[in-house]
Amino acid sequence: EKSVTEILKQLKMPYGVFVIEISENSDFSEQGRDKIRFMFSANKGVKPDDMSRVASGGELSRLMLAIKAVAAENAYIPTLIFDEIDTGVSGEVASKLGDIMQKMGESLQIVSITHLPQIASKAKNHFFVYKDESEQKTRSCIRQLSHDERVTEIAKMLSNDKITPEAIRAAEVLISL
Known about the structure:
Blueprint lengths: L1 H9 L6 E13 L2 E10 L7 E2 H4 L2 H18 L4 E5 L7 H14 L4 E5 L3 H4 L6 E6 L6 E6 L2 H13 L5 H12 L1
Parallel strand pairs: 4-5
Antiparallel strand pairs: 1-2, 2-3, 6-7
Helix pairs in contact: 1-3, 3-4, 6-7
């Protein structure tokens, strides 16, 4: 609880609180005898409640990253896959998400599907996923990008596919941070 709450503060949730509530059922069920609920509050003075009911999309993204970061520190998990963990966040929070994922990547493999330049720019390797429709059937494909291709893709993320010299320079700056 304490570690997750600390990460939430790093992710611009200064009043975020995470609590694990454990109670015992009278009988055993398919899930065992313990009833475990993840409780959450993002706001000052608001009592934590079931996270599935009270967390917005952006709050849930940050909360899930915090939980996974703590779990990865305390158990051997060789690979974590994040499929748009950045939903509902942008700007500085996206950059903080990227920082935490980058730090996690020092001790385990992180695969992240993202559309945010702040996160993509922090990757050690950048892959491009695309569909090939040249045959009778559509195929999903993936290929690793060169440095120049990576700059171009991040510039597209910054400028809605219209690549300007300013977007190229911003992409280069993001990658260098």
